[in-house]
Amino acid sequence: MKDDVRLPGEVHSFEVRLESIGGLGAHAAGQVLASAAVLRMGLNGAHFSSYGSEKKGSPVRSFVRLVPGERPIRTSAPVEAPDVIVVFHATLLRNPATFAGLRKDGTFVYNAPKGVVPEQLVALPRTARVVRVDALGISVEEKSRPNAALLGTLCGLFPFLRADDVLAALTEEFAGKHPEAVAANERAFRRGAAELEIVEGPGRAEGDLPIASSEPAWGYETQPVGGILPNPGNTAWNDLSASRAGSIPVLRTEKCIHCGVCDLVCPDFCLVWADGEPGGTFERQLMGVDYRYCKGCLRCVESCPTGALVKEPETPGLADRLRVPLFPELIA
Questions:
Q1: How many CA atoms lie less than 13 Å away from 204 in the CB half-sphere?
Q2: What distance lies between CA 301 and its chain's CA centroid?
Q3: pLDDT digits (tens, 9 = 90+) for 184-200
């Protein structure tokens, strides 16, 4: 084993919260980071994740807590006041809980291509370091996953997380079951460290951000009535946008013949139709996609006979700009 690593400055602990959705590898990333720190760097560490059903699109939070090797960790509580928050999917920026608890001198890393800075970042502390990396773009090009690139970004930002040790732990994690992924993961890891971008001054908040409890504070006066579902998953507000992994179908109206084949294969009924013009060629016309309900399976693109529906990278704000609402009467 190499010499023990010391945490930077007078820091007594280093806490990371990974905000993600199922399928992007946040749980594996937390495991790799913690095991590298404990087994290869001489730190003491703990890792666990919080998630519901184990399926693509479900919210996932992964927590890593590191302390000097001689200091025990006596808590298994979630990381509520992190030094670092890593956001695996831009859709999560809409949820205020994603930012909760970040320290005023903390680091906020989010996965997005270069371009417009999301307006939600104004909620960050003014003094926090904000970092953008196109982890999804890197993973697509290298045939890897976003977690490999984001681990590289963490090592690039925090040199005490020795890149060679973390990369060795990442290789060990995948060498047994997926040896074909080892080389791709290494390329994505190194690009994540090299291609990170500091975003200057999006935050406006002063001081540490307030902590948000992961569970509601229910008591005998505030708990919901028994026998009901407070947030049923089958309402008109069921939002599938977090299920997408970087691409959306976009309608090219000039090519559409309104044949309805896309509607036959869409599993989530997210295509919006309207009556055609009186005396026109089509009785019903495809108007667009309500991306609130689109999970990005792209079956419509695969089945479109004219190429009117095309696959495009989902850059921040694109789905909101192109969205045609299925239920306009429900929009405030």
A1: 5
A2: 24
A3: 999 999 999 999 999 99
106-142 per-residue burial string, b: 16 or more CB within 10 A, e: under 16: bbbbbbbbeeebbebbebbbeebbbbbbbbbbbbbeb
Q: Which CATH architecture has domain 14-199?
A: 3-Layer(aba) Sandwich (3.40)
- Confidence at residue 1, expressed as pLDDT on a 0 to 100 scale: 40
Which secondary-structure segment (H or E) carries 44? strand 44-51
d(CA 142, CA 293): 29
φ/ψ of 149, rounded to 5, equals: -65, -40
Cβ pair 149, 188 in contact under 8 A: yes
pTM of the model: 0.78
Please state the rounded mean pLDDT for residues 74-95.
91
Q: Where in the chain is the domain with CATH 3.40.920.10?
A: 14-199
**What was the pLDDT predicted at 231?**
63
Strand bridging mode 284-289 / 84-87 = unpaired
Using the 8-state DSSP alphabet, how is residue 118 labeled?
P
Class for the domain spanning 241-330: alpha beta
26 contact partners, CB below 8 Å, separation of at least 6: 18, 19, 20, 49, 60, 61, 62, 86, 88, 147
**Within 10 Å of residue 253's Cβ, how many Cβ atoms?**
11
How many CB atoms neighbour CB 62 within 10 A?
A: 28
How do residues 244-271 score in pLDDT, each as one tens digit? Answer: 877 899 999 999 999 999 999 999 899 9
Q: What is the tens place of the pLDDT at every residue in 142-180?
A: 999 999 999 999 999 999 999 999 999 999 988 888 888
Q: Please tell me the distance from the alpha carbon of residue 43 to that of residue 281, in angstroms, as a whole number.
A: 70
